[in-house]
C-alpha cells in the first residue's frame, strides 16, 4: 500500500492517484484543491475562494452546501440509504415521480430512473428502438440529431452527438445517424428542408435535440416556434421526439423546463445535472403513455431490460425533492428573473463591440463569442488564456474555445454577477491583443 507524507498537498496527492476527465494528465497543471463550498463560492485548501460562474458544470442550482438540501439528505440517510429498485420501491422515488409528472408537459406519463445524463439519454434511445421493435417495425432504427450537438459520453449518447475530437477514437463503433443544421435565426428554411427529406425515409425512428440551447456547441440558440414545427413534422411521420433537458431543465432557460415554451411537445424527456440541485448523481427519463404501453405484454421479452445498481437511490431522490421545493419557491423565481435581467443588460452593453462576434442569452444562460480575427478551437491558446484570466480574478469558468458562457447558481448576487461581467470585459481586452493590427478599426490604432 502506498504511503503519503502528511505534508503533501491535496493537489499533489491527487496527481499521484487520480485520472481527471477531459484532461491531458501529462501537461495539465495540478488541480485546484477545493475543500468546501458556500453559496456561489468554492474555497480552496489555501483559503482562496473562487466564484462558481458555471454552477460546477451546470449542476448546482441553489448554491453549494445548501442547508435545506443537506437536511433532507441527512434525514434520508438515517432512514434508508438504498434498496434495489427491481421488485421494490420507496417513498422518495414515488414522491419525486409524482411531483415531476405534475410539472412536466401533460404528454409525460412515466418516470424511469438512472444515474446521470448520459444514461438518461441511453434509456431514451433504447425506449425508441424497442418501441418500434415491439410494434413490429424493427427497421425503424435511425436517429436524427443536430450538428454540433452533445448528449453524453456513453456509446449511444456519443453516437447521437456531433463527431469531433473527443469521440474520434470511437467513430468506427458508433451507429450511424443523420445530422441536421441547427436552425439558427435566418437559416430555418434550410433545416426544415433537410428534415423533410429525411422524414420520407421509412427507417427514421427518433429525433433527439437539446431544446433551444446547444450547450457544448457554444451555447448556440434557436427559437421555440422553429423547434415546435420540427416536432410537428416528426409526429406526422410517426417519429418519436426526445428532449434532452439535462442542461436546460429546472429553470435554466426561463421557465422550469425549456419544453414549456413549445406548442408541440416531445414524447420523451431526459434529465440530470440540476435534478438534485448539484448534490448527488442522478438521471431520469420520462415518456408518454403510448410508449410505456408498447412494453406491456404477457411476453416478458417485451419489457425494457435496462437498469443500474443505484437506480432511484433514496438519498438522491431526497436531494431532488428538496431542490425541487427550492426551485418552485417564489424566491428562486425572483433570483432567476434578476439574473436574466442582468444578463440582458450586459448583452446590450457589449454587443457589437470590437473583439466580440456575438452575444447569446436565454434565461440564466449568457454566452459571449469573442472574435480573435481567426477561427479558434477548444484547444486554442486563447481558450487557455481565458481560463487563466478567470482564475486570476478568482472566478471559475470553462471556456468553449472562443466562447465563454455564464451559467451561475441562482443565489448569485448582483455584486457577484458584476465580478463575472468584469471578467468578460477583461477577456475582450485580451482578445484585442490577439487580433492582427490590420483587422482592427482605426479608432483602436490611436
From TrEMBL:
<keyword id="KW-0032">Aminotransferase</keyword>
<dbReference type="InterPro" id="IPR015422">
    <property type="entry name" value="PyrdxlP-dep_Trfase_small"/>
</dbReference>
<feature type="binding site">
    <location>
        <position position="307"/>
    </location>
    <ligand>
        <name>substrate</name>
    </ligand>
</feature>
<comment type="function">
    <text>Catalyzes the transfer of the alpha-amino group from S-adenosyl-L-methionine (SAM) to 7-keto-8-aminopelargonic acid (KAPA) to form 7,8-diaminopelargonic acid (DAPA). It is the only aminotransferase known to utilize SAM as an amino donor.</text>
</comment>
<feature type="binding site">
    <location>
        <position position="150"/>
    </location>
    <ligand>
        <name>substrate</name>
    </ligand>
</feature>
<feature type="binding site">
    <location>
        <position position="244"/>
    </location>
    <ligand>
        <name>pyridoxal 5'-phosphate</name>
    </ligand>
</feature>
<feature type="site" description="Participates in the substrate recognition with KAPA and in a stacking interaction with the adenine ring of SAM">
    <location>
        <position position="22"/>
    </location>
</feature>
<dbReference type="Pfam" id="PF00202">
    <property type="entry name" value="Aminotran_3"/>
</dbReference>
<feature type="modified residue" description="N6-(pyridoxal phosphate)lysine">
    <location>
        <position position="273"/>
    </location>
</feature>
<dbReference type="InterPro" id="IPR005815">
    <property type="entry name" value="BioA"/>
</dbReference>
<dbReference type="GO" id="GO:0004015">
    <property type="term" value="F:adenosylmethionine-8-amino-7-oxononanoate transaminase activity"/>
</dbReference>
<feature type="binding site">
    <location>
        <begin position="117"/>
        <end position="118"/>
    </location>
    <ligand>
        <name>pyridoxal 5'-phosphate</name>
    </ligand>
</feature>
<dbReference type="InterPro" id="IPR049704">
    <property type="entry name" value="Aminotrans_3_PPA_site"/>
</dbReference>
<protein>
    <recommendedName>
        <fullName>Adenosylmethionine-8-amino-7-oxononanoate aminotransferase</fullName>
        <ecNumber>2.6.1.62</ecNumber>
    </recommendedName>
</protein>
<feature type="binding site">
    <location>
        <position position="398"/>
    </location>
    <ligand>
        <name>substrate</name>
    </ligand>
</feature>
<feature type="binding site">
    <location>
        <begin position="308"/>
        <end position="309"/>
    </location>
    <ligand>
        <name>pyridoxal 5'-phosphate</name>
    </ligand>
</feature>
<keyword id="KW-0949">S-adenosyl-L-methionine</keyword>
<keyword id="KW-0663">Pyridoxal phosphate</keyword>
<dbReference type="InterPro" id="IPR015424">
    <property type="entry name" value="PyrdxlP-dep_Trfase"/>
</dbReference>
<comment type="pathway">
    <text>Cofactor biosynthesis; biotin biosynthesis; 7,8-diaminononanoate from 8-amino-7-oxononanoate (SAM route): step 1/1.</text>
</comment>
<feature type="binding site">
    <location>
        <position position="273"/>
    </location>
    <ligand>
        <name>substrate</name>
    </ligand>
</feature>
<comment type="subunit">
    <text>Homodimer.</text>
</comment>
<comment type="similarity">
    <text>Belongs to the class-III pyridoxal-phosphate-dependent aminotransferase family. BioA subfamily.</text>
</comment>
<dbReference type="InterPro" id="IPR005814">
    <property type="entry name" value="Aminotrans_3"/>
</dbReference>
<dbReference type="InterPro" id="IPR015421">
    <property type="entry name" value="PyrdxlP-dep_Trfase_major"/>
</dbReference>
<keyword id="KW-0093">Biotin biosynthesis</keyword>
<keyword id="KW-0963">Cytoplasm</keyword>
<keyword id="KW-0808">Transferase</keyword>
<feature type="binding site">
    <location>
        <position position="57"/>
    </location>
    <ligand>
        <name>substrate</name>
    </ligand>
</feature>
Amino acid at each position: 500500500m502506498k504511503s503519503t507524507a502528511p505534508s503533501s498537498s491535496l493537489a499533489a496527492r491527487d496527481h499521484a492517484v487520480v485520472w481527471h476527465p477531459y484532461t491531458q494528465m501529462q501537461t495539465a497543471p495540478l488541480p485546484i484543491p477545493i475543500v468546501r463550498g458556500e453559496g456561489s463560492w468554492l474555497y480552496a485548501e489555501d483559503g482562496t475562494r473562487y466564484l462558481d460562474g458555471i454552477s460546477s458544470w451546470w449542476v448546482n442550482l441553489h448554491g453549494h452546501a445548501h442547508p435545506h438540501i443537506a437536511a433532507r439528505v441527512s434525514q434520508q440517510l438515517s432512514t434508508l440509504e438504498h434498496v434495489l429498485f427491481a421488485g421494490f420501491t420507496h417513498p422518495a422515488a414515488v414522491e419525486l415521480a409524482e411531483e415531476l409528472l405534475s410539472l412536466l408537459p401533460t404528454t409525460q406519463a412515466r418516470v424511469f430512473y438512472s444515474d446521470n445524463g448520459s444514461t438518461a439519454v441511453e434509456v431514451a434511445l433504447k425506449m425508441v428502438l424497442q418501441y418500434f421493435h415491439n410494434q413490429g417495425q424493427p427497421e425503424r432504427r435511425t436517429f436524427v440529431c443536430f450538428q454540433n450537438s452533445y448528449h453524453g459520453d456513453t456509446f449511444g449518447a456519443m453516437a447521437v452527438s456531433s463527431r469531433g475530437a473527443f469521440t474520434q477514437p470511437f467513430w468506427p463503433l458508433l451507429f450511424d445517424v443523420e445530422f441536421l443544421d441547427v436552425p439558427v435565426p435566418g437559416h430555418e428554411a434550410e433545416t426544415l428542408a433537410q428534415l423533410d427529406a429525411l422524414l420520407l425515409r421509412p427507417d427514421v425512428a427518433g429525433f433527439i435535440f437539446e431544446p433551444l440551447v446547444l450547450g457544448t456547441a457554444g451555447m448556440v440558440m434557436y427559437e421555440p416556434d422553429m423547434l415546435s414545427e420540427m416536432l410537428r413534422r416528426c409526429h406526422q411521420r410517426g417519429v418519436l421526439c426526445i428532449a434532452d433537458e439535462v442542461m436546460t431543465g429546472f429553470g435554466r432557460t426561463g421557465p422550469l423546463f425549456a419544453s414549456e415554451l413549445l406548442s408541440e411537445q416531445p414524447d420523451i424527456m431526459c434529465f440530470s445535472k440540476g435534478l438534485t440541485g448539484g448534490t448527488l448523481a442522478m438521471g431520469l427519463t420520462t415518456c408518454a403513455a403510448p410508449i410505456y404501453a408498447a412494453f406491456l405484454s404477457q411476453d416478458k421479452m417485451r419489457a425494457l431490460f435496462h437498469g443500474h445498481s443505484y437506480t432511484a437511490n433514496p438519498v438522491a431522490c431526497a436531494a431532488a425533492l428538496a431542490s425541487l421545493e427550492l426551485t418552485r419557491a417564489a424566491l428562486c423565481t425572483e433570483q432567476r428573473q434578476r439574473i436574466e435581467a442582468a444578463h440582458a443588460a450586459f448583452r446590450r452593453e457589449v454587443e457589437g463591440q470590437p473583439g466580440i462576434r456575438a452575444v447569446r442569452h436565454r434565461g440564466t444562460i449568457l454566452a459571449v463569442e469573442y472574435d480573435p480575427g481567426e477561427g479558434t478551437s477548444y484547444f486554442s491558446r486563447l481558450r487557455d488564456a481565458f481560463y487563466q484570466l478567470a482564475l486570476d480574478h478568482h472566478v471559475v469558468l470553462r471556456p468553449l474555445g472562443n466562447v465563454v458562457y455564464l451559467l451561475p447558481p441562482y443565489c448569485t448576487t448582483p455584486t457577484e454577477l458584476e465580478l463575472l461581467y468584469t471578467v468578460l470585459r477583461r477577456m475582450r481586452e485580451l482578445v484585442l491583443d490577439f487580433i492582427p493590427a490590420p483587422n482592427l478599426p482605426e479608432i483602436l490604432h490611436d
